[in-house]
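so the lab meeting is tmrw and i was supposed to have these ready like two days ago... anyway. pasting both below. for each one the top line is the aa sequence and the line under it is the structure tokens. i havent really looked at them closely yet so no promises
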Amino acid sequence: MLGPRRRTRFGLGAQQRITQRRDFERLLRQGVRRNLSGYTFFVARREEGSARLGLLVSRRHSPKAVHRNAIKRSVREAFRLERPELGPVDLLVRPPYDAEPGREMIACLRLLLAKVGK
């Protein structure tokens, strides 16, 4: 036996997420709003640190929590893959109401995040 194996976690830690209400409100009021392919992005540059993500997914996106959670997982995965190129930025993402989670959504979001991060 080789010893205990540690699983690598690919999720977003607390430093990569926007969790506080005041940060959400600041981005909604003062962030630069960009609409691309049905997605709404609220962007605010920061002095230092890594990119942080906030999500705006409501019951209007889907009445089923399972579907809303799948949308959020897809957005988080695209953000996780593009985060190193984004730099120090706070980013709120609201997907289109007819968004379908999956590989196509992740691929589309990766392209959009590259545009937003510039």
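ok protien two:
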Amino acid sequence: MVYCETMACKQSCFTSQGITNGIDMNFKNLPLLNAIIAVFTVGLCWGIIIPVTSVILEGMAVATPVIGLMASAIFIGMAIGAPGVGKLIERFGIKPVLLSGLTVSGVLMVILALFTSVPIWIALRFALGITFGAVIISSEVLINLVSSDDNRGRNLGLYAFAFSFSLMITPVALWLVTFGTGVPFIFGGLACLAAAFFMRTTIRVDRRDTSAAPSLVQRLFTRISLSLMTNFIAGFMEGSLIALIPLYALREGFNPVQTGILLSAFMIGHGGSPPFIGMLADRIGLRRVLALVYLLGIAVFVIIVAGTFRMGLALPLMLAGMSVGALYPLAVGIIGERLSSEDLPRGNAMITAAYGMGSILGPLLPSIIMHVTAPRSLFIISAFLYVVVLIVMRLQSRQKSSDREREGV
């Protein structure tokens, strides 16, 4: 017995033997809207935690490495918790996991407001990584289940834009600190609880039997290897570039104001590109667009390394942001095409874990290389990783062509 969502779209019903029986697609019960609200809320909380805790800890004279460990705790929780989240969705369905993730996140955010102990905060952020991951994985499975090949890219592009937009507006949380250090956390917690209450009334859930079983992990790994690599690269690139572009700019002689402008250019490209990339993917295919995104990134990173820029660097950084911001939704979309509904929870959990691991390593490894070499090595590493994935994509395409030829013989 599993929980299953119910959908009716244009008088027809999306059915499967797996975790869903369908999801009502009328205005009141729109899966895409639910997923966007869920990920926007998680992004809002995420964006509140990062700057507010850093400011508070800095005021407490906490050592920088400890602040860095706290920043990584969310990604560690996400990477470790993701496999368990996939199993929970397989057993109970999307709605219970999604609502539980939002509710527990809201409670943990309020608890953050009650304590300023560093060990407690690290533990709470680790737990929030697990609950945020539950919301993200559930939302992505939901979108993939109700999307077709004609609108999957657009839907995931809007989903990714909602997350990026929530992060862009969260610096306002620093203003809320003036009313008390706990106020931003309480605000985020209430937002989670409100979103959970809204979704409780907008997704109808039935209980159904299931006879289908998910595929073996080894088989899943083979089928979603490209998405796994892409999501790892997405986490790695976001973690390294967002954290280290300011360091690169300062070491290249830019002043703090110019550095802020350059980082903003990257973030605008990162947050604004997914909807347009998604629409293009619906027209020409997700894999083709992914290859174009990697080619764009390689070209831009080479230009940055080879060129001499002042504020003109903002344009290539914006294009770099576009190439990085498109990776995550494209990876999620590809597994939606490749996997059955029974395999989606575990597949989404695997690529979310890959993203978490990339986000952990992203700020660390390039910073070490930058320390012992030149600042521009940041973009050399980025170009190298993109080239590696393009080579893998080419080898996979050749293997598929070879397999088809053998089958035709």
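from a quick look at the 2nd one: The first helix runs from residue 31 to 59. The domain at 218-400 is CATH 1.20.1250.20 (Growth Hormone; Chain: A;). will dig more after coffe
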